[in-house]
Design brief:
Strand content of chain B: 15-25%
Order of helices and strands of chain A: HHEHEHEE
Shape of chain A: globular
Radius of gyration of chain B: 24 Å
Largest sheet of chain A: 4 strands, mixed
Order of helices and strands of chain B: EHEHHEHHEHEHHHHEEHEEHEEH
Structural class of chain B: alpha/beta
Radius of gyration of chain A: 14 Å
Distance between the termini of chain B: 65 Å
Structural class of chain A: alpha+beta
Number of strands of chain B: 11
Strand order of the largest sheet of chain A: 1-2-4-3
Largest sheet of chain B: 6 strands, antiparallel
Oligomer: heterodimer
Number of helices of chain B: 13
Distance between the termini of chain A: 31 Å
Chain lengths: 105, 348
């Protein structure tokens, strides 16, 4: 039998897009994130592929910071986290690139 | 003792059909992993690179990841650009479709990759969002059967949307999924899929039948054919990226130019300047033109005239155009090309 419980998904997805950390928490993570992934100069989906690779080697609870200048990561990383069960912490906008933070769950 | 869950691998483009296929299996209790193969020919990738022309602050998303996010199923992105170009696009065993689209070889290539993951990861079967009769090349019954045979996936490949019209697979025979819970959709219409999407609460999906690959596109295919003839089939993924943007003009054997059509394309072309010549106008709003190959003095002048033709100063008698080739740079005062007929002749 088919089960029906779809509408919850979209609301949870929206919440996830906003990230779970505050701006101050994200700023403090810049120095302490365990893993840094530099994907500047690459196009989507390369930044996500690099995060995917890095996440395989990370321990649960570790934080990764992605540096990217492809604006698509703003939507793709929350979606990737939602799909894989990792935690999307949020992003910090620098002048020419984005810092996106995730936590391995 | 609890039973091990049934696990399936699915090819997920992020379009409506593959999202529905994943959703159907998920609802039947199957643990699903989506595989999204990045071929380098995805139309959506190009949109994302260019950004949203109407709103640069609103980027495009990766539909496969978005579908995975909505359904909360993991989606793995797999970069196959290099092998795909060499093994599928340049040397298709089953030939091309209307453009340069080797759809049957493409399916076979992806399914073979998925089969390796199936065996290594201990998955039970593979699924796709294919619909019988939806595509003229790879989704006809004989092609679908040939693909299964060539990939040695007979019985292991479930197409939930058309399953009732196809032979039962191992997943149905072993009652991992009930055939009655699958569908009998066929043909090009997407009405049934849209009805199902409504029923499943999938409200945010890409335009059905939007076409997700550059290779069947007539304009892209023409540029690709030109490049393959000019280079004797020696091309790389960067060349493929550049085929997706700008106006392309062939100035001679081994020499062509790519003229940006708007700011986003200029920004994109800017990233490919290394190893290529460049032409631009500083005095007016102007395209960035990239030169591929080693142009003669006449060809360089023509590149400048064409660039002037597409800059904001095109009505002027003469336009100062800047150029750079390797370590050499200069400025030429040229009359913009006026004759559209001439441009049509050299346009690829």
């Amino acid at each position: 039998m088919l089960r029906h419980a779809p509408y919850r998904r979209k609301a949870r997805f929206r919440r996830q897009v906003n990230g779970s950390a505050t701006d101050d928490q994200l700023r403090s993570l810049i120095e302490v994130a365990e893993v840094a992934v530099d994907a500047r100069g690459t196009f989507c989906p390369e930044p996500v592929i690099r995060v995917q690779e890095a996440a395989r080697a990370m321990c649960i609870g570790q934080t990764a910071m992605l540096l990217a200048d492809d604006a698509g990561v703003e939507l793709d990383l929350p979606a990737w986290c939602m799909s894989t069960g990792n935690e999307y912490l949020g992003l910090v906008r620098e002048d020419t690139f984005l810092r996106v933070f995730i936590r391995r769950s | 003792m609890s039973q091990r869950p049934i696990r399936a691998l699915g090819l997920m483009s992020g379009g409506l059909d593959s999202t529905l296929a994943a959703s159907i299996l998920q609802r039947l209790g199957v643990e699903v992993l989506g595989l999204h193969f990045s071929t380098g020919f995805c139309v959506a990738d190009r949109h994302r690179i260019m950004g949203n022309a109407n709103n640069r602050n609103k980027p495009y998303r990766n539909d496969a990841l978005h579908a995975g996010g909505q359904l909360q199923i993991p989606v793995e992105i797999i970069d196959i650009k290099d092998d795909y170009l060499q093994q599928v696009v340049l040397n298709p065993k089953h030939g091309y479709g209307s453009g340069m689209n080797p759809c049957i070889d493409c399916r076979i290539f992806m399914l073979k990759r998925a089969k390796v993951m199936l065996e290594e990861g201990g998955y039970d079967f593979i699924f796709t969002g294919e619909v019988l009769g939806q595509r003229p090349m790879s989704q006809r019954r004989p092609s679908m059967q040939a693909i299964e045979q060539e990939t040695e996936l007979e019985g292991l490949l479930l197409r939930p949307l058309s399953a009732k019209l196809l032979s039962p697979t191992i997943a149905e025979q072993k009652d991992w999924v009930r055939r009655d819970d699958l569908y009998a959709i066929s043909g090009r219409s997407r009405h049934e899929q849209m009805r199902l999407a409504d029923e499943f609460g999938l409200v945010d999906y890409p335009q059905p039948a939007g076409g997700c690959c550059f290779l069947p596109d007539e304009n892209f295919a023409r540029k690709l054919r030109d490049l393959l003839i000019d280079r004797g089939n020696v091309v790389d993924p960067d060349d493929m990226m550049l085929l997706k943007v700008g106006r392309h003009f062939r100035l001679g054997d081994g020499v062509k130019i790519i003229v940006g059509r708007h700011e986003a394309e200029n920004d994109f072309l800017e990233r490919f300047r290394v190893g290529r010549g460049a032409v631009w106008v500083e005095e007016f709003s102007s395209p960035l033109t990239l030169i591929e190959g080693a142009p003669s003095a006449e060809q360089l002048e023509l590149a400048c005239k064409i660039t002037a033709r597409y800059c904001a100063g095109r009505a002027e008698n003469e336009v100062p155009v800047h150029w750079r080739l390797d370590d050499h740079a200069g400025r030429l005062l040229v009359e913009p090309v006026r004759e559209d007929g001439f441009l049509d002749e050299i346009r690829i």
